[in-house]
Every structure is written in C-alpha cells, then in structure tokens.
Amino acid sequence: MPKGYIIARVDVADLEAYMRYAKATAAAMAKYGAKVLARGGQYEALEGTARSRNVILEFASFETAQQYFHSPEYQEARAHRVGAATGEFVCVEGFDDPGH
Question: Nearest Cα to 12, choosing from 3, 21, 25, 1?
Fold first, then answer.
C-alpha cells in the first residue's frame, strides 16, 4: 500500500500562536502515526514563490493522512493556526513501488 504525505508550505504571521498550533498537533500526529520528514529548516526556492516554513509528514496511507487532517484532534490544533499563518496544505499519495 502506498504511503500518504501531507505537505505544508506556510508563512507565519504570529509565531506565538503558530507554536501553540505546532505543540497541539502532537496528539493527533501520535494517534495517526505521522512521521515528520521535514519541519522548518533550511530551504531554497528552486522555482515559484517560496514560503518561510515547509513541513512534510508521512503516514501509512493516503487515507490515514486524510483522516489525520480531518480528525477532531487536528482540527482543534488547527484553530491555533487560523489567522496566525497562511499557506497551502496538500495530501499526496506516494508510490506503491519503491523503485518507481
């Protein structure tokens, strides 16, 4: 079964509120088995408009990633982010064949 990924590209306007959001996501991440592949850190815009913060979360499946995002636990955490940051969040299915 292919893994699922949530990719977030975010610009933070209110760091204090955003940090509350980040901390509050821990319970949902644990419940849905999220593995953090990238969070913040160095980046380079290779093409297009960059955002100041980039996050990649890996899940056991696309469906699990969707369940995480729509879960009551994540939505409660998300309330801290609304108004504190703007960005794009996408759910992406990985390859079933690692050699693909």
Answer: 21
Backbone angles phi, psi at 76, to 5 degrees: -65, -45
Residue 100: per-residue pLDDT? 64
50-77 pLDDT, tens per residue? 999 999 999 999 999 999 999 999 999 9
* Total of domains in the chain: 1
Q: Cα separations (Å) of 79 from 8, 10, 48, 83?
A: 16, 15, 28, 9
CATH number, domain containing residue 55? 3.30.70.100
pLDDT digits (tens, 9 = 90+) for 74-89: 999 999 999 999 999 9
Q: At 76, is the secondary structure helix, strand, or coil?
A: helix
